[in-house]
Amino acid sequence: MRRAQVIVAVLVIGFGAASPAWAVPPADLDPVEALPHCVVTAVEVGDDAAIPAPRCFETFAEAIAEATDGRVLLPKDAQNVDQDTLDDGIDPDGLESSLATVIGIEYEHKSFGGWSYVIQSTNSRGCVGYSYRVSTLPGSRNNAISSARTYGGCRSAHYSGTYFTGSRYLCGCAQLGTMNDQTSSIFFSATGYQN
Ligand SMILES: [Ca+2]
């Protein structure tokens, strides 16, 4: 091989290895539309911040790693996560912990299938004494959630309107019943009621 061909081959191989598909969605596509597994940071009640932009990935495992700041690393083909695994590395007495964790996971299909929308809290206390708002959902996740899991002592109230208006349905649940494909905002607390 001539020198120029060798250099081209090395560049192609090197670029491929350093750039997994999920890191480079087509430039003209919103990552939430292009990638199936997204993480959004819920806003703690009492904080006036707007809901931040979601971060999206090709695999569920990458989303959970993002949501836990790299603390929880699942097998590449994982499709779900349990509370014990999410608690890895969290001191059970560490109620002041600033470790990020997951308080809920929303799914495209009934029984926890399809894309996921992982709801992150920026502390490991979950809903023990705290409540969180997801006041809007991005385009492809709006009016599309069909099941949800909750973590961290949370229950999640799914609302048909943005900013917790309209019909309301309490979930973790394998299906949202009359609220299937209708959720536009979600409130997380220990009871599922706003406080
Ligand atoms: Ca759906």
Description:
- The protein contains four helices and ten strands.
- It is α+β, with helices and mostly antiparallel strands and 195 residues long.
- The protein has one domain (35-189): Crystallins (Gamma-B Crystallin, domain 1, Sandwich).
- The model is unreliable at 6-19 (pLDDT under 50).
- It binds calcium ion (CA).
- Residues 108-109, 144, 146, 181 line the site of calcium ion.
- Calcium ion binds next to strand 4.
Task: Give me some keywords for this one.
195 residues; 4 helices; 10 strands; Gamma-B Crystallin, domain 1; five-stranded antiparallel beta sheet; 28% strand; five-stranded mixed beta sheet
Task: Please summarize what this structure is.
The protein is α+β, with helices and mostly antiparallel strands and 195 residues long.
Task: Assess the beta-strand content as a share of residues.
Answer: 25-35%
What is the approximate shape? globular
Uncertain residue segments: 6-19
CATH architecture: Sandwich
Helices, strands, pairings?
Layout (H helix, E strand, L loop, with lengths): L2 H16 L12 H4 L2 E5 L1 E2 L10 E3 L2 H8 L15 H4 L14 E9 L3 E9 L10 E3 L12 E4 L4 E7 L3 E7 L13 E5 L6
Parallel strand pairs: 1-5
Antiparallel strand pairs: 1-3, 2-6, 4-5, 4-7, 6-10, 8-9, 8-10
The chain binds calcium ion.
